[in-house]
Amino acid sequence: xxxxxxxxxxxxxxxxxxxxxQTGHSVLLIDVSETALQKALATIExxxxxxxxxxxxxxxxxxxxxxxxxxxxxxxxxxxxxDLVVEAxxxxxxxxFSIFRKLDEICKPEAILASNTSSISITKIAAQxxxxxxxxxxxxxxxxxxxKLVEVIRGYATTDDVCxxxxxxxxxxxxxxxxxxxxxxFVANKILMPMINEAxxxxxxxxAGVEEIDTVMKLGMAxxxxxxxxxxxxxxxxxxxxxxxxxxxxxxxxxxxCPLLVNMVTAGKLGAKTGEGFYTYTPGSKxxxxxxxxxx
Length: 296
Ligand code: NAD
Known about the structure:
alpha/beta; Rossmann fold; N-(1-d-carboxylethyl)-l-norvaline Dehydrogenase, domain 2; 2 domains; 11 helices; 10 strands; binds nicotinamide-adenine-dinucleotide
């Protein structure tokens, strides 16, 4: 599996393209937005530059990684040459279903189709294709070049062979894969999202402010980042989409998204990627300031 396609070049897609390109794979990076593709290439170049500064890679390795990536807005014939596709498009079931129907038509029969979805059923995604046994979840963590974990999700029909090949491929990328079963949110988000939602409810109820909640969880529970900052980093739209999948998938009201989260997404305050969520973000600055809406 040397020819890889990555679908979606947002926060996750650029990182996934980065790690494959850096480990000697040719990467076809596809997005519906040319602007997103250009932004992704700039991010990859910046992140490779950081690795170079730290001495983790050489100038030549940086250049080879960049040369390994080709971008396009077309689902064209080049996809037919890919051995593995990792889909990292917007967390919306209909968007993912339509992508997988398209991939199934274009990709060669032996190609493995993986999704980086945070919560959507792999079995449902696989059912859009005529090759459900070759569909699997390959859930990278953000930021992909840094985080070691890959949650490998077996759909109902995924074969042992496909699963073990994806476990091996993840190790080849320098990651540590963990195999889990296909239930809403899998393991990572079944546990993480209720905690983030509870932090937002705690803020909404006025129990404490943004910094206080994050400080309690950082200092008290040894979390490297507080849950509100983490939500901003993941993207509040992504958090909301995952909570809706958990709520619908388990039919349990405990997963109902906090109305404050719904309001923030409706207002376009999606966290770091839009410059404001619970905190405000200025490009090039690491300073973390509580957003005006939550300032005392
Ligand atoms: P994002 O909004 O940053 O990027 C999504 C990209 O998909 C956008 O560039 C968009 O233009 C593109 N896209 C939309 N429809 C498309 C299509 N039909 N074909 C090709 N590209 C299309 O989202 P993200 O945070 O990168 O999340 C992507 C996936 O990764 C989601 O499934 C999400 O749940 C999952 N994920 C996200 C995180 C996180 O921390 N953000 C972590 C793990 C997994």
